[in-house]
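[recover] target loaded
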C-alpha cells in the first residue's frame, strides 16, 4: 500500500452564504492552489493547505441551469458552461482572482484528449490561471485516505461507479457503472407519490422531491433475521406552500433502486453483485489484495442512513465468508474528492505536475493529464 502524509484538516468547518447560494469558509488563506471537483448535482472547491479549511460548495444547476452542459457521463461538457461555473466558484465561492491561482481539476477515470483540450481552454484562455492539472477522480478520493490502492465506489447523482486502483493506476478493465444514482431515487419517489394521489409537479415540485430524498429517505437493511429498517424519526414532509405529505413507508423503500435496478425496470446486475465481482475474482492476485483491503464508499448518495451497511451486507452475501474485506464511508462523503485534492495540492511533487500555458503550447493539452 502507498501512504501519503497526514495533512488534511480533521473536520470541515464551513458556513452557508444564503445570498449567493454558496457554502464558504470565512477564513482567508495565502495559498492559491485551488481544487475543483465538478459534479452534476454539486460542485465543490477548496484551497490546498488552508487551515482552517477554505472551501465552497454550490449546486451546479444554480449557476449553469442545465448540469449536463457541464458534465456528461463525468466528462467535460460545454466550454462556456464550465468556464461560467469554475469562474463563479473561484471568484464568489473562494473569493479569489483566477489569474492568481493554480488549479487542480478532478477528472474522469478515463480522460480523453477532448477533456484535456476543453479543460485547457477554460483554465488558460477564459479564466487565465497560472497553471493547472487534471487528476482522476478515484485517485483523489483515495488520497483523502492517504493511500493509492483500493476500490472506490462513487454513489453519485446520475449513476454509481466503481474504480479499482492498484499502485496508483485505475484498472479500467475491471471498472463498473451501475446505472442508478440520486436521480433514480427522485424518479422512483415521483412514482410512489403519484400512487398516493399526488401530482408532480402540480402538487409537489421537483425541488420538494429533492428535499424529501435528502432529508427523509433512508436505506432498508436486510439480514438473516428478516427485514430491518433505519429511520429518521419522522415521515411527514411540509412544502413551502403548507401542504403536508405523510410519506410513511415511502421513506424506507424509495432508495431500493440504488441496489436493485429491477425496481425501475432496468435490466442490470445489482450493485452488490458488481462490487463482489471485483473483490471476489481470482484472475489478478494484486487486484484482489488491493480492493479487499480498502473499499472506499463515497459520493452524496452514500450519506443516506444505512447505505454503507446495506452495500456491505449485499456484498458479503455474494462473496461468502471466506473473502475478508474492509468497506467504509465517511460523514462528509460529498467532499472526499475535494479533500483528496487538498492533500494532493500540498505535496511537493504537485508543483512539478502543474502545467503552464507556455508548456501546453509546446507539448500539447494532454500534458494536463500526467497520471
Amino acid at each position: 500500500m502507498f501512504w501519503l502524509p497526514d495533512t488534511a484538516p480533521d473536520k470541515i468547518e464551513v458556513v452557508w452564504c444564503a445570498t449567493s447560494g454558496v457554502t464558504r469558509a470565512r477564513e482567508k488563506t495565502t495559498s492559491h492552489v485551488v481544487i475543483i471537483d465538478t459534479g452534476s448535482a454539486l460542485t465543490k472547491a477548496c484551497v490546498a493547505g488552508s487551515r482552517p479549511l477554505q472551501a465552497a460548495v454550490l449546486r451546479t444547476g444554480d449557476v449553469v441551469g442545465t448540469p449536463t452542459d457541464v458534465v456528461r457521463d463525468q466528462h467535460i461538457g460545454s466550454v462556456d458552461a464550465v468556464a461560467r461555473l469554475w469562474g463563479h466558484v473561484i471568484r464568489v465561492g473562494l473569493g479569489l482572482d483566477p489569474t492568481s491561482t493554480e488549479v487542480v481539476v478532478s477528472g474522469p477515470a478515463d480522460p480523453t484528449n477532448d477533456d484535456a483540450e476543453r479543460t485547457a481552454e477554460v483554465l488558460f484562455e477564459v479564466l487565465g490561471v497560472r497553471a493547472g492539472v487534471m487528476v482522476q477522480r478515484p485517485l483523489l478520493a483515495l488520497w483523502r485516505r492517504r493511500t493509492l490502492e483500493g476500490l472506490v465506489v462513487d454513489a453519485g447523482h446520475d449513476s454509481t461507479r466503481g474504480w479499482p486502483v492498484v499502485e496508483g493506476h485505475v484498472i479500467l478493465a475491471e471498472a463498473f457503472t451501475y446505472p442508478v444514482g440520486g436521480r433514480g431515487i427522485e424518479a422512483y419517489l415521483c412514482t410512489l407519490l403519484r400512487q398516493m394521489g399526488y401530482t408532480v409537479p402540480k402538487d409537489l415540485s421537483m425541488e420538494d422531491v429533492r428535499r424529501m430524498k435528502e432529508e427523509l429517505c433512508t436505506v432498508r437493511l436486510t439480514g438473516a433475521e428478516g427485514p430491518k429498517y433505519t429511520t429518521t424519526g419522522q415521515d411527514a414532509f411540509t412544502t413551502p406552500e403548507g401542504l403536508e405529505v405523510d410519506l410513511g413507508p415511502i421513506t424506507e423503500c424509495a432508495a431500493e433502486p440504488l441496489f436493485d435496478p429491477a425496481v425501475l425496470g432496468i435490466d442490470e446486475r445489482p450493485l452488490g453483485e458488481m462490487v463482489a465481482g471485483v473483490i471476489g475474482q481470482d484472475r489478478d492476485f494484486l487486484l484482489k489484495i488491493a480492493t479487499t483491503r480498502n473499499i472506499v464508499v463515497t459520493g452524496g448518495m452514500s450519506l443516506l442512513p444505512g447505505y454503507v451497511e446495506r452495500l456491505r451486507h449485499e456484498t458479503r452475501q455474494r462473496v461468502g465468508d471466506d473473502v475478508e474485506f474492509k468497506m467504509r464511508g465517511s460523514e462528509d462523503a460529498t467532499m472526499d474528492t475535494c479533500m483528496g485534492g487538498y492533500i494532493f495540492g500540498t505535496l511537493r511533487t504537485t508543483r512539478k505536475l502543474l502545467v503552464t500555458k507556455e508548456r501546453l503550447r509546446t507539448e500539447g493539452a494532454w500534458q494536463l493529464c500526467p497520471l
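[recover] notes: The domain at 149-329 is CATH 3.30.420.40 (Nucleotidyltransferase; domain 5).
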